[in-house]
Design a protein that fits this description.
homodimer, 332 residues, alpha/beta, Rossmann fold, Dihydrodipicolinate Reductase, domain 2, 2 domains, six-stranded parallel beta sheet, six-stranded mixed beta sheet, 8 helices
Chain lengths: 332, 332
């Protein structure tokens, strides 16, 4: 089957990765339409060695299209996804726009693939930090029951887009050269610095990113009372998120039992060398598919509780790869 | 009173900060003897505008000395601190050598100043991550009772010394210039990367840094069963540690009550602008005395639990300042 595919937001960091992955995974792309703002229209992008011309995104862009991979931002998805659905396409949306909308499945294929079939034209891709977290947490939850999860994140620049990655590099060079630097993307000094995630702050003191990790996990697990809290932090790393996880379980479980579950878990890879004191690092995950896990240990402060450390590529499994995997479940 | 003061390890990052702080705080220094390895002997250091010549550290270095500020590493303290005590000096030791030794007070002046007077010649300065954590945690514990603390750290290069800070800068420049780089201090790629704290790994899966945070807190609080767990991570930041704290309290407490306690807490400063989404960052803490606190909120995953975010200068309050404050309690 040849899938007539459109990419919305093809010129961004996730858009570029979508093109890479469609090619790398040999997704059965029929026609490929790359859509972006008026500003980017006419640009050439490479796909399977050929030039593809970026077209301006309009409400008429979706005629004959089977699949739309959307990553142009929430307001763009809000405006154009309904037109794509009306034209008969299925939209896999990377933005936060429809994630919590009732009737829109929110899917990580390793977690809740069964939700895909309930779609009414739109399927939402979760937030990057959520995706990376649920990959190891869901199988542990299934096996042993997670009573409560306490998360702290170490998030890369890529979550704020390709321009943020470039600004981190540019600002760092300016810092090293002792030159002034004017930030236009990231609101805080970023060279050799870090800051609480700058998404909007809620009345309860949680920022949007943290609330996404909580609410999206609850939706995917179909457990509106699943207990999870998160502190989200942006660190000067380019494109892989790391997370420190503290998981209170329903029962006493050995470290070995947890490793057994993780070894069998889809999309998860254990990466550690205990003797060499070597554990997953963001550079290990960069441009890789799995979420890498290590440092599983019993929490000495509380019974039935484990600590672990994970890292996953924000652009790939945190966004583009997850979307393509959903598309594969739909069309392959 | 003029205090005849010796600095062991005067040429390191903490040694340099000790000199700065002795001058800045107008500590009543009588004679000042700066001691270092044979290799550094003869070097000149500045103190109050005058050159001081580094002397080689020997067992005879302490004659007539009242106070030794030691930060040359654990093995050096092990070898030379007893000689200093024998010569009649009091040693304030920045290394981990004597921290858990019975009879050696482990002191953060804002937490347990009363322990100072029990010394038998040596007083230990806690680990930097511990000091920064207990500054806000202790007053909250006193006010409301902390049942359990879950910590994740974001630690700066300075904790591994001045050479690690320089290596982070050098490696980052090499990365930006796409040039090869040979690390000699830090065991992992550090430019735009982070890694689990590289101190030795214990059988229980906690690294030494994490175990220090647990055991040293228990010792200072005089509560050997105080429940705390930590995940320690080295991030590409130069000299301030940040920490994400999740504190389960004995009772339900409002966010305002926690802020009241923190406002009154010695050595703690609230730094935030909720409307501007602005919270403490390591660059805020760099070369500053206080531990900066913000983002206090109720944990939505569990009753009677709060989350908060802190940052403090690793070299200053995490090491040199704390040592000088102990010395001030002894001599001023």
């Amino acid at each position: 089957m040849a899938v007539k595919t459109a990419i919305m937001g093809a010129t961004g960091a996730v858009g570029a990765e979508l093109l890479t992955l469609l090619e790398e995974r040999n997704f059965p792309v029929g026609e490929l339409r790359v859509l972006a703002s008026h500003r980017s229209a006419g640009k050439k992008l490479k796909f399977k060695g050929e030039d593809i011309t970026v077209q301006e995104l309009t409400h008429d862009s979706f005629e004959g299209i089977d699949l739309v991979l959307a990553s142009a931002g929430g307001s763009i998805s809000r405006e154009f996804a309904p037109s794509a659905v009306k034209a008969g396409a299925i939209v896999v949306d990377n933005t936060s726009e429809f994630r919590m909308t009732e009737g829109v499945p929110l899917v990580v294929p390793e977690v809740n693939p069964e939700a895909i079939k309930e779609h009414k034209g739109i399927i939402a891709n979760p937030n990057c930090s959520t995706i990376i977290m649920v990959l190891p947490v869901f199988p542990i939850h299934k096996a042993f029951g997670v009573k409560r999860a306490v998360i702290s994140t170490y998030q890369a620049a890529s979550g704020a887009g390709a321009k943020a990655m470039q600004e981190l590099l540019d600002e760092t060079r300016a810092y090293l050269d002792n030159k002034p630097f004017e930030r236009t993307v990231i609101p805080h000094p970023y060279a050799f610095n870090l800051f609480a995630h700058n998404s909007g702050m809620g009345d309860n003191g949680y920022c949007q990113e943290e609330t996404k990790m909580v609410k999206e996990t609850q939706k995917m697990f179909c457990e509106p009372n699943f207990r999870v809290t998160a502190t989200c932090v942006r660190v000067p790393v380019l494109r892989a998120h790391s997370e420190s996880l503290n998981l209170e379980l329903e029962k006493d479980v050995s470290v070995e039992e947890v490793y057994e579950v993780l070894k069998a878990a889809e999309g998860v890879e254990i990466l550690e060398d205990r003797a060499a004191n070597r554990w997953p690092m963001p550079l290990d995950a960069t441009s890789k598919d799995p979420v890498f896990v290590g440092r599983v240990r019993k929490d000495i402060s509380q019974a039935n509780t484990i600590e672990m450390w994970i890292t996953g590529d924000q652009i790939r499994k945190g966004a583009a790869l997850n979307a393509i995997q959903i598309a594969e479940k739909l069309f392959c």
